[in-house]
Amino acid sequence: MPPRDTVRYPVLAVVFVCAACGLVYELELVALASYLIGDSVTQASVVLSVMVFAMGVGSLLAKRLRCRAAVGFGLVEGGLALVGGCSAMALYAAFAWLGESRYVLVAFSLAIGVLIGAEIPLLMSLLQRDAGRAAGPAAGRAGRPAGGRGPGAPGEPDDAAGTVADLVAADYVGALVGGLAFPFLLLPWLGQLSGALVTGAVNVVAGGGLVLWFFRRELTARSRALLLTVNLAVLAVLATATALVGDFEEAARRAVYGDAVRVAVHTDLQEVVLTGAPGEPPDLFLDGRLRVSGRDEYRYHEALVHPVMNGPHARVLIVGGGDGLAAREVLRYPGVRSVTVVELDPGVVRLARTDPALARLNGHAYRDPRVRVVHEDAFHWLRQAADHVRERYDVLISDLPDPGITPSTKLYAQEFYGLAARSLAPAGRLVVHAGSVTDRPRAYWTVDATLRAAGYATRPYSAGGRRPGFAAGPDRADRTSGTGRGPGDWGFVLAVPGPRPPVLGLAPGAPRLRSLGPGTLVAAAHRAERTRWTGLPQSTLVHPRYGG
Fold first, then answer.
1. Is 399 a known active-site residue?
2. Catalytic residue among 39, 399, 402, 448
3. Which residues does UniProt mark as catalytic (predicted)?
């Protein structure tokens, strides 16, 4: 029988590796679900709560395998490697071909949690059994019967407690390493799909190797053959899937976006896809959600930009808008002296500069010397700008995705609008894209309530003519229930600091527009007012209100 530490330390090492793999599976599901479904807080809550519950279930189920702990642990690790390694690919396949991935997310969270929960009880059984066998000869040599071990002998309760402490410590440290490896190593080097598959391969090698080598005496010849076959089969599946990841992504992308994908790149922050036939205006998708429809984007950008330009507009700040389309509309005014675009993702701006179709759509706005681009988080950048009073803006344009519980929620918070007010010139104005008035009125009017709580007077309005099916295809998170069609309008809020609401109109000498006129804006304001919700609380950093 090998010395006890010969087994203990490899077991702790494997617990460390398996814990790291388990947390990677968990983070993979959270990240991919946030990308595919949206509402990152909800998806993280679903994954974490289901997985922790399932771990408890797995611990209870492991009691049935204690009599065959070695083969049970080996099969659990093989199953965990297969399920966890393939989870990201299965989730993306469900989204691409079935259009729904919430149930798949719950199913994989449940399965992974059950298997993770069974690991520690089975390993504890193996160590206790090994300790019992080691204690018998030791006790005999010491002149004591094996059944009457004295204090401090291996296998006593205090030693069992120490073993549990060691296992839990290795588990927690492994989770730390896995949690750090996921964003800093796996995602940038391998991506979500390949990262999960490689993690599964590491998992099955560590778990299977421990049982087949250090606990081989616990196995019958039949059990060894079974575990070896299972481990090799799991490795073969993971290796095959890894080799086919490129083809799978291409097929899934065609299923999601159609055959007209022109550009698909993964930046450090998101997936950016351009679609469209040659000679047609492109559609721009960010993380699977349609942000620019080439055929009707002018309706959105004209409504966003031109009402807020009614007044002084020498200095303009655009938050978001990395596609350059809002800047294109701003630059149509000869009185504009500078345009600052604060866009977090350099990849979007790079594509807007270099892709011929997108650059043509934005009028080559980034070639204009008046345009300056800042690649920083808008909240922190504006906070620094406001603290140092470096510059005041006549116009601030918030060109962001629809409000929701996402990382950009803070840019719809009362605190952000307070910072914006400090950065505006005395006659400065702010316009916010606030989502659909008709499809998500609560979220829209929460933006209005938040602006008013931050000291603004507001003028809500909307723009119609949104292309049918705008949110169809990959933008499934914004579909209306059962219709397969996206929102039919865009909602905006024009705001100025102080008690007097701004005038909703066009600047004298405004450029000729395809979708806006004085009568159009009056109708846009009436259309928004008909949906008004009252009594809504404001959204803040610590209490975001855009979940519904």
1. yes
2. 399
3. 399
